[in-house]
Design a protein that fits this description.
single chain; 348 residues; alpha/beta; VC0802-like; Rossmann fold; 7-stranded mixed beta sheet; 9 helices; globular; binds S-adenosylmethionine
Length: 348
């Protein structure tokens, strides 16, 4: 028997469960929905994590292979029981993440998570369970003061952040909080090396649905020259950088005068319309990279995402366009997901 624990945005447990069931269809897994978490069980001993690339999961922010689920922990000494539960663990671990689901319980459990860190580290060290640079990581996920899920993840096939949430600081001069969404998308969806390659100063970008300019701000911060398309007003401080040209136009009809490196789109519209718009930009060769949001409807959200990706795939195959697509429901996303799409030129 093997199990995975997946972390997701509260309210999206069923999408997270549907997705992992589909990805692991060959393993005939069963899922159990908890609050902000999904447990995925298989009757076999198959290594479920090794079957899947974490980057391909949209709704899971973090995951691990379950070693133990302890209930009725002695609240005067949780460490002994946790270390004991780690004894069967074959691999030593580089680090320990002490986590909770991203629900209201997190606030209640934060002092416990902070307090237990050092004593647990010392006890694990004594038990010979820690090893610097090991590819493995230990997860201790508290769901109540006396209940914990324990497991391990491959550091190269999971999120590098606790609970899968990068802690970002809101820049005081940014025009809107949604600036954090694009910052998180860049961190999560594009690997570090590629980021340097794709965001070079002087490159050109178009921001559809730009006002007041939170996403444009991120592009300008990376030295890019941006055309901001929106009937709404752009932030004057951002405009004063002289790196932004504001055009009042409809993003769905707008055609760039010449191709650009980047298009980003944060227009609140039906997801399929946004997918069609993005496909049009790539088919016309108007951009090489795109980050866009798909605002999800209340029902059939997973099916809607698949519909959008199928549309892009079909249209690109017809035009023989090779591409890379990565999507995640980010911490800063609400009822939406964020997608990174890149044209891949095989000859390059
Ligand atoms: C979620 S807000 C964008 C926030 C922006 N990304 C930021 O970080 O500040 C959506 C914007 O899309 C604009 N919008 C809606 N429909 C549009 C359209 N058809 N063409 C261009 N902009 C549109 C709205 O005016 C609004 O400013």
């Amino acid at each position: 028997m093997s199990s995975l624990l997946l972390y997701c945005r509260p309210g999206f447990e069923s999408e997270c469960a549907q997705e992992i069931q589909q990805v692991l269809a060959a393993e005939n897994v069963q899922t159990q929905i908890l609050s902000g978490l999904v447990v995925c069980h298989s009757d076999t001993d198959v290594d479920l994590m090794a079957q899947t690339d974490f980057q391909h999961l949209i709704f899971a922010r973090q995951w691990f292979d379950v070693i133990a689920h302890l209930t009725e922990l002695n609240t005067n000494d949780r460490v002994t029981a946790i270390v004991q539960a780690c004894q069967p663990m074959r691999n030593r671990v580089h680090e320990v993440f002490i986590e909770t689901p991203d629900t209201d319980i997190a606030k209640v459990l934060t002092p416990l998570c902070r307090g237990i860190g050092r004593p647990l580290d010392m006890a694990l060290q004594k038990a010979g369970k820690l090893q610097k640079n090991s590819p493995w990581r230990l997860h201790i996920c508290f769901t109540a003061t006396n209940e914990v899920w324990i497991g391990i993840s491959d550091r190269h096939n999971s999120s590098p952040w606790q609970m899968g949430i990068p802690r970002l600081k809101f820049p005081q001069d940014a025009p809107s909080r949604s600036t954090l969404k694009l910052e998180e998308a860049i961190l999560v969806l594009i690997d570090r090396k590629q980021q340097e390659h794709v965001f070079k100063p002087g490159r050109r970008a178009i921001d559809l649905g730009a006002a007041p300019g939170g996403w444009t701000y991120q592009l300008v911060k990376r030295g890019m020259l941006v055309i901001a398309i929106d009937n709404g007003k752009m932030d004057p401080v951002l405009m004063a950088t002289e790196m932004v040209e504001h055009q009042r136009a409809d993003g769905f009809n707008y055609k760039p005068q010449r191709p650009v490196d980047w298009m980003v789109c944060d227009i609140v519209e039906k997801p399929i319309r946004v997918a069609e718009l993005v496909a049009k930009w790539f088919i016309n060769g108007w951009c090489q990279h795109c980050i866009f949001n798909l605002k999800l409807p209340m029902k059939q959200r997973y099916a809607e995402v698949q519909k959008c990706f199928t549309l892009i795939d079909k249209q690109f195959k017809q035009k023989k366009i090779d591409y890379h697509l990565a999507a995640k429901q980010l911490y800063h996303d609400r009822d939406e997901i964020t997608v990174y799409l890149r044209r891949d030129n095989k000859k390059q």
